[in-house]
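In the laboratory, one determines a bound structure by crystallizing the protein with its ligand and collecting diffraction data. In a computational setting the workflow is compressed into a single prediction: the sequence and the ligand go in, and a structural description comes out. We illustrate the idea with G3I.
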Amino acid sequence: MRHMCALAAFLLVPGCGDGGGGSVRIGVSDELAGRSAERDGYTKPLGAALRVEPARDDRGYLDQFATTFTSMTPENEMKWETVQPRRGEFEFGSADALVAAARRTGKRVRGHTLVWDQQLPEWVSEADWTPRELAAVMRAHVRALVGRYRGRVAEWDVVNEPFDADGSWTESVWYRVLGERYVEIAFRAARAADPDARLFLNEVGAEGPGPRARALRALARDLRRGGVPIDGVGLQNHTAIGSHPSRARLLRNFRSYARLGLDTAITEMDVVIPPGPAPRDGLEQQARAYADAARACRQARSCTGLTVWGVNDRYSWKGPGQRPLPIDVKGAPKPALAALRRILEP
Ligand code: G3I
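The predicted complex, in structure-token form:
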């Protein structure tokens, strides 16, 4: 039955609810659903990356998410190692639970991420592929995952982090076997699976000038000119106090993509306050960094939203000691959250 379910999930035949892998349930009470932040509460979506374990087990975490944010990105639950751990066997239980919780609380959903060189299962990253085989495996994965959430995901990070810091192509299995065209294959498969989802190219460290930013813009330009179905570029904006990109710099970046006909989004923002004795005004510096990004996104019509990479410091991928998010380790809002709300509210 499990194989049939996996196959059914692959064929998207209803009746195999969680696509194998056991179902996960996040209990969103009617009361919480009723208290959830309204999508039109902000002029642009204010999102957070969500994790399935704390959403299921930590009421405070889920409450903070539901009442603060208006968009949800699964932090890890839609990645290849989770969704297709073995070839042809799909495990959608965790992603289903996060998408259901997001919809129950009226959130927009960003899908993350279809093709990346990290968090791949070994059957993908370690095999000796021919180009034809690997392209078929990629297309089947994208078709199954994007198809499953067709109509429920507003934006997909189709390809994540294609470049190294020096602007060279990351030597992923995708690039090694397929060359640069792996990007086009991924975008065309995603468009075919959900014609209405907005398709993004997502990168870290490309918020300001530099070789990676140049490489990303050149790729986006070439994809557009080549008729590849790309709609936007995600700038992750993982940054720190004292070195965050300014509003003006982000605005310049947004506008340079808008001239290519592309939307932009801040997709994974966090602002580290280095461990140790925080500068007296560390929280204020952090609030300024978030405020700069929010102002730039609000000002640029082509910026589709701002997502922070976690609900609170306790569950940040950076570790609570880096204090990177607008809600602290105890679930209390910081000056950064007040700044985001002030700038993004109508
Ligand atoms: O699932 C296993 C679990 O079974 C095991 O017990 C546990 C301890 O070893 O590890 C768990 O896997 C972890 C996974 O997150 C799920 O929690 C991995 O070790 C850990 O490395 C992985 O980290 C994620 C990281 O991507 C991987 O590169 C972070 O949570 C996630 O926030 C981070 O997100 C990425 C974006 O997707 C892309 N942009 C950069 C960003 C930060 O790296």
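The CA atoms of residues 137 and 199 lie 20 Å apart. Keep in mind that any predicted model is a hypothesis to be tested, not a measurement.
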